[in-house]
Design brief:
Layout lengths: L5 E5 L5 E2 L12 E6 L1 E3 L5 E3 L3 E3 L11 E9 L2 E8 L2 E4 L6 E2 L15 E5 L2 E5 L7 E3 L7 E2 L11 E5 L2 E7 L2 E7 L13 E3 L4 E7 L2 E6 L2 E7 L7 E5 L12 E3 L3 E6 L2 E5 L5 E3 L21 E5 L4 E6 L10 E6 L4 E6 L6 E5 L2 E5 L5 E4 L12 E5 L9 E13 L4 E8 L6 E7 L28 E7 L8 E6 L7 E14 L9
Parallel strand pairs: 2-3
Antiparallel strand pairs: 1-40, 3-34, 4-5, 5-40, 6-33, 7-8, 8-9, 9-10, 11-12, 12-13, 13-14, 15-16, 16-17, 17-18, 19-20, 20-21, 21-22, 23-24, 24-25, 25-26, 27-28, 28-29, 29-30, 31-32, 32-33, 34-39, 35-38, 35-40, 36-37, 36-39
Amino acid sequence: MPIAAESLRLGPWRAGVNYSLPAEEIGPEGLYDMANCTVGQAGEVKKRKGYAKYNASALNSGATVTALGQLVLAGTEKVFAIAGNKFYDVTGGTATDRTGSVTITAGDDNVWNWVLAGDTLVAVNGVDTDGITWAGGTNNAGTLDDDSRFTKPTWIAFWENRLWLGNENSNNDRVWRSDAGDITTWGATNYHQFGYEVHGLSPFGNALAVHTEQGIHTLTPTGNSTIPFQQQQQTQQGTIAGRSIVNIPGQRQLFVREDGIYQWAGGTQVEKMSFALDDRYWDDINTARLAYSFALYYPNKEEVWFFLPHGAGQSTMDSVVVYSTRLDCWFGPYDNFTRDSAALIDDLPHAGDFDGYIMKHETGNNDDGDLIKGYFETGNIAPLGDSVECRWLYARTLFDNQGDYDVAVQQKAAGIVANVETLTMEHTGSTAAFGLLDSTFVLDTSTLQPELSTLTGDTDLFGYDPRTMLRFSNFVDDETFTIRRTSLMYKPIGRTRHRRTGLE
């Protein structure tokens, strides 16, 4: 009697990618490697969406976009950008120069931090003497009337109806606060000293979190007019990159340190969240440039995007890794771009590049005309252990009905050399694919069949090794894929003569 085939199910991949484990230790819901792919809320893996220009013409003759944001000023939604030495209203993608008489020092590292302080935009960069203000409308930008006692602040927050400025030119460990309800008046003793260089400010619950590399401090209201805020050190570790601080649901805060990405939940300890990125991703991070990394929270997908310098000597933020707050997993990286600033605009991630453009991410299936190279690899699984050989038969893959696209499926196992099969992601049923009517359809006679949202396709497998793994890829312009899971069909053969450890 022939031996019946058995099935090994891989996916959904809710565990995300783990660069710190060997392929043999990655479980059925994990991924060994990937690039330019996302993990969706149900654990499906998708080729990421692309990006396109938000502004049709380059800002300031192609200068680096060092600040970007969307906010409501005078009751109107506005988008602003700073590129080189110019301040722009770029609402709707049309740029209007609003620099006026403000002095802005151009430079790729002269990045800006900004807040909405009541009805006024206020931005600082640690280089120019005073901050920038903007009231929107047809107004030009103005200069923040802060105080001659401190200049060139780097970090900014608006909290408790006060403006807060940190790491100023003469005292990098100091945070100044304005009077309540007045962002231009600063009392003689309206500052707090922390003993270490301030690396970021962020409102957090009922406190203002002040980050130094040596710890997170909080300022909390006391209700005492003489000493209105209590200062207290909470942790022994804080960020090195203030633009990487992101508040996420569940009263949590994520931030970058030299060895990875950490979480603070308001207690006395921080927790490293990025162990899965350590060995085959973070090892290639240029830590000398991590101070310029930044992040944003993408609520629609419950994701945090971290823009990082990946590669030896890489000076720009050329890589994005994503943390899913819903699944508690990592995926990425995204590559094929460099960015210097980012913001959520119209609920989608946008980022400023080094050529005067704001790029709208999460749109289309190409990167401003360039193809997206997306792939992912499963773990190297032994369904019956390393002592039992399997005859591998085929992979049955469940995927979304999105278009007439092909995905390359490569089997990786001992003795298998570059075996690549093609998974044709095309609906060839009785009705034309994707909801179109073909030439055989006759009005009042033909019957419409329900359109299939998911389809299955088979690809051949080979070999007799106890383990195997698959790589799915698509390197074709304007094509995408969504893979929900795959089942590997095999027949047990028997015990091996020598124990095998899998792929080298």
